[in-house]
Amino acid sequence: MKRRFWLVGVLVALLWATPARADTGVIVRTTGGLPALQILCVLPATCTVVGGLDGTLGQVFLVTTPLPLQTFLGLLNGLTGFVDAEINQVLNLVDLNNLVPTSISPTLLSDRTAVPYPANSTNTAWNSYVNQPASSIVGVQNAQKTFHVTGTGIVADIDTGVDPNHPVLQPVLVPGDGYDFTRNQPGGSELNDLPPTFPTPTPCTTATCPAPAQVNQSSVAVLDQSSVAVLDGNSQYAAFGHGTMVMGIIHLVAPTAQLMPLKAFHSDGTASLSDILRAIYYGVQNGANVINMSFDMKTSSAELQSALDYANQHSVICAASAGNDGVQETVYPAALQNDVMGVASTSDQDTRSSFSNYGSAIVWVAAPGEEIVSTYPFDTYAAGWGTSFSAPFVSGAGALLHNLQTGINESGAATATANAVPLDPSLGLNHGRLDLVMTLGSLGGTPDYGVSTSPATATINAGQQANFTVSAAPAHGFDQTVTWSCSVAPPGPNCAVSPSSVRLDGSNPATATVTLTTMARGSAPPLALPRKGPPLEIWWVLAALFACLAVLASCSLGRASRWRPGLVAAAGALAVSIWAYSCGGYGNSPPGAPTLSSVGLNPTSVTGGSPSTGTITLSGPAASGASVYLSSSASAVTVPASVTVAAGASSANFTVNTTSVTASAVVTITGSYGGASKTASLTVAPSQAASILSSLALNPSSVTGGAQTSTGTATLSGPAPTGGAQVMLSSDNVAASVPTSVTIAAGTSSATFTVSTSAVTASTPVTISASYAGVTKTASLAVVPSGTTAGTYTLTITGTSGNLSHATTVQVTVN
Question: Where in the chain is the domain with CATH 3.40.50.200?
Fold first, then answer.
């Protein structure tokens, strides 16, 4: 370590002697978090931590360094927890190959008639936008009407931002209008990229609006001529309006889905990889259900893949453009097909656009990407060319799929969109061209519902509660009752849903509250003394009274006392007599006491080595407990020396054990009490390839003492014999108790029993034993103190209606 810091010192000294150079941005992943980087960057001329990139996760950071990259990476290798690092790439949104054609349809953007959109609403949009050819090609309105969907959830777009004042988009923007990562401030407005002196166009009518004019490299727009002059040919605004156009296409497909603008690109079309990573993590952590990425890069990035893996793990649907170089090449993120659907561009005639990249490695599905009319800043519209405008058709489809199936994820969405219009395989467009009716129809048109929970994660301390909202969203008019249930793994906390069921009305979601309850960790509760005990026999009371009198008298003999030795002796004798009588005399039943009525056996025939259960029955309740003596006529059968019938009871059970025999034997069991004897006969048969005890299992193997039980399962190697197999059970610790035995029914091979537990102050290991036919098996049980153990628990909430059942999960970390 000293040598390393000496080398660092020499390096720093050399850097001071070298000319200044531009710092290099490096994206670093470390499990050591920010403190690990700060230790390194505190050294002069080493690095500067710019900030975190992965939101709440705290593992990915952007740093800048004046050092050569390899030198800096060498220093990082000395960091504890260092995972990897890569250059902070710069991306360019603008592709030069998809220039606006020289000949533009004269009717493009010409129909400015205001039509309601969404349908049956007071909002309006240009008819050139609502009813454009691309909308009909992918079946927007047909899908919306057929499946009664207009989009739910949040669709995020990583782009140049949005015009937050556009009347078509403003009603569906998320509160706060997203985030601007280029300025590190809330609100994703791309109007902030314009100078204060920019001449804002004024709304125009059909008569006053100029003809469409090209305003940048990928779009034409209807603008005031002064605005066109500022934007057209000015590289500073080469991508201005791109984000507003992309969001307009998403809105065209899913007009009631919320839109989240994530501004990572500048108006000139450039963006840093670090801002794109921040946007992905931000979208996932702020509730996005779909992320649109109308950009591509040709260099792979481990951190881009990690970010999209993270989105996939949180069931976020992702779509990306395939690129506009017109070749078969690998571009990212479209090539990350486990996480993203890559989208190519087609013409209105279902041919591949000349500018569109192709190939199964990057194209999942295609969508129209020529003359796409969409919203544009300043309350106007524009037409665009490029795969940038194909991808949002698929992202909008994701919002419609979410409408039908709330819990759908990237894999489910990809499978659904693969139900597309087949195209010529030579076009290299994989699954064909997007068809929204086929896509939605692949989920099934029958009434159904989806379930989801919010938030997806929570962290609490033991003893606290965590509350979640579970929602059931109907699809295709589902109007039945959904009944909720919840479970927790591993066991420990308890969960409940209130109300326990909801009735859906066919169109609106219904919610309930899920409460996860944990227990504070602490010592076991003190044992409580019983408030009442069984009544004492009067004989015992009298015996105790006279015994006390005798003791008091004897203690007074050494002093002048009114007690005389004769009286003391009499009191003692009387106490002994009362005690003897209360215990049944001197071996005989007192007058009027119950007598032995019968001795029974169940079963009356067993295989040698198997037990039977004996039952002693008196003619009436025992006054203070009756001891019945037992005996067996043969050594092959053993019984206890006696069995006690408890006070107030008239019967008691005892176990009859047998050993293996070579021939059948009839053995007499005798019970004696109060001068009377009763007998019962037991037939012991030789074993005939009898099954043996093969295993003993406990589930769960760890339980909270006094609060939880475990289920034991005793299993034989084969079916139990006639009369069943009685397996004897025992526990080596009072922290867990088991029945004396469990019977495996004839013809079956296993039986279960309950292991009850008591509260403990420390984790206690218990061994449960099972014995049958000379074979013993054991299983271990951990009895832990009350209170929820620290760890991460998965809460599964299930909504059931008839034969339908859908589940959703959340993660709860208990400290």
Answer: 96-441
Phi/psi of residue 510, nearest 5 degrees: -125, 145
**Class for domain 2-88, per CATH?**
alpha beta
Q: How many CB atoms lie within 10 A of CB 297?
A: 19
Per-residue pLDDT tens over the stretch 637-666: 999 999 998 888 889 999 999 887 766 688
Q: Which residues contact 250 (CB under 8 A, 6 or more apart)?
A: 155, 157, 257, 259, 292, 392, 395, 396, 399
Residue 757's pLDDT is 94
* Helix (H), strand (E) at residue 470: strand 465-475
Which residues on neighbouring strands pair with residue 268, listed in sequence order? none
Cα 192 to Cα 180: distance, rounded to the nearest angstrom:
10
Closest-CA residue to 163 (of 176, 184, 174, 177): 177
* Residue closest to 373 by CA, chosen among 111, 95, 102, 97: 111
**Residue bearing tokens 């309930």:** 512
Helix axes 391-404, 140-147, angle to 10 degrees: 0
Q: Please tell me the CATH code under which domain 693-784 is placed.
A: 2.60.40.10
Closest CA to 142 of 439, 450, 475: 439
Strands 626-632 and 605-607, by their bridges, are: unpaired
Predicted local distance difference test score (pLDDT) of residue 570: 46
Helix or strand or coil: residue 657?
strand
Q: What is the Cβ-side half-sphere exposure of residue 328, based on CA atoms within 13 angstroms?
A: 8
CB-based contact 112:118 (threshold 8 Å): no
List the CATH code of the domain at 96-441.
3.40.50.200
CATH class held by domain 456-519+791-814: mainly beta
The CATH 2.60.40.10 domain(s) of the chain lie at 596-685, 693-784
DSSP H helices, 481-588, are 538-555, 565-582
Distance CA 290, CA 397 (A): 10
Residue 591: its pLDDT value, please?
A: 59
Rounded Cα distance, 607 and 661, in Å: 8
Q: At what angle do helices 565-582 and 538-555 cross, to 10 degrees?
A: 160
- Using the predicted structure, report yes or no on whether residue 528 has a pLDDT greater than 50: no
Task: Determine the Cα–Cα distance for residues 16 and 29; give it in Å rounded to an integer.
Answer: 28
Which residues fall within 8 angstroms of residue 613, CB to CB, at 6 or more apart?
601, 602, 653, 654, 655, 656, 726, 741
According to DSSP, the residues that pair with 517 across neighbouring strands are: 465, 494
Query: Does the pLDDT of residue 690 top 50, yes or no?
Result: yes
Note the pLDDT tens digit of each residue in 169-187. 999 999 999 999 999 999 9
Cβ distance 656 to 684 under 8 Å?
Answer: no
63 near 40, Cβ under 8 Å? no
Q: Are 328 and 350 in contact (CB under 8 A)?
A: no
> Domain 596-685 sits in which CATH superfamily?
Immunoglobulins (2.60.40.10)
Which residues in the chain are classed under CATH 3.30.70?
A: 2-88
